[in-house]
Design goal:
It is a single chain. The chain is an alpha/beta fold. Helices cover about 40% and strands about 20% of the residues. The protein contains 9 helices and 8 strands. An 8-stranded mixed sheet has the order 3-2-1-4-5-6-7-8, with helices on both faces. Helix 3 packs parallel to helix 4 and helix 3 packs across helix 9.
């Protein structure tokens, strides 16, 4: 308990909250700016089983916002390197690596094995897929997106507002760009990923009020943060 003593010291959390985290499993889709930050936060907090899914390799352009990779690791698997970082941080964590694109077929098989799904992808198609498969399987999730200095985060559980309810049905709208085309600032990704991590921890430990029927939005340039009621 010494490792998690500061977490257990939170009155609403306690040792029971730590135990719940230790017994839980979380799937993180994407090992980029959102996924890598969130996975490390989950590992530090003691999530017992973390699965990281990403088919991509490290590029020098990633390092501006993906702080857990190194220049010497360019060209290597993001999932493999992130798994190594997690073990270096917390050797007690069970880490599963999936070096594949998580499409709907794979998601249907994987999602029921986890207590919570984090969507850290950088494209709308994957977010819509996560929204759909979580709704079909009843697995709660948190979906986030970042662009330039802005970010948005929402959570879902059965009976609450879905991603597709907020943003409309999936389409080929070219205005919804991945960060590789639209650009993103590192601090914005770090904030959104931290909120995602907190959402998973709150849900699993049964503390606080997750972002159900709400959309957390921020803009670091103004700066401004607000929570919209979308229920």
């Amino acid at each position: 308990m010494n490792r998690y003593s500061r977490l257990a010291a939170i009155p609403s959390f306690g040792e029971d909250g730590v135990r719940r985290l230790r017994e839980s499993s979380v799937l993180v889709i994407g090992c980029g700016a959102l996924g890598s930050h969130c996975a490390m936060g989950l590992a530090a907090s003691g999530i017992g089983h973390i699965c990281i899914a990403d088919f991509d390799t490290i590029d020098i352009s990633n390092l501006q916002r993906q702080f857990f990779f190194r220049e010497s690791e360019t060209g290597q698997s993001k999932a493999d390197i992130l798994s190594r970082r997690i073990h270096e941080l917390n050797s007690e964590i069970e880490v599963e690596v999936v070096k594949k694109l998580v499409d709907a077929s794979l998601a249907k098989r994987m999602f029921p094995d986890f207590d919570f799904v984090i969507d850290g992808s950088d494209n709308p198609a994957t977010k819509y897929m996560t929204d759909e498969i979580c709704a079909d399987t009843g697995i709660p999730c948190c979906i986030a997106g970042v662009r330039d200095f802005q970010g948005q985060v929402m959570s879902w559980q059965p009976g609450t507002t879905r991603y597709s309810d907020i943003y409309g049905p999936a389409s080929g709208d070219s205005s919804m760009l991945p960060c590789s085309a639209g650009g993103v600032a590192g601090p914005a990704a770090a904030i959104a990923a931290s909120v995602q991590c907190a959402e998973a921890i709150k849900r699993i430990a049964g503390v606080g009020n997750p972002l159900y029927d709400k959309l957390f939005m921020f803009d670091l340039l103004i700066p401004e943060a607000k929570i919209l009621d979308v229920g």
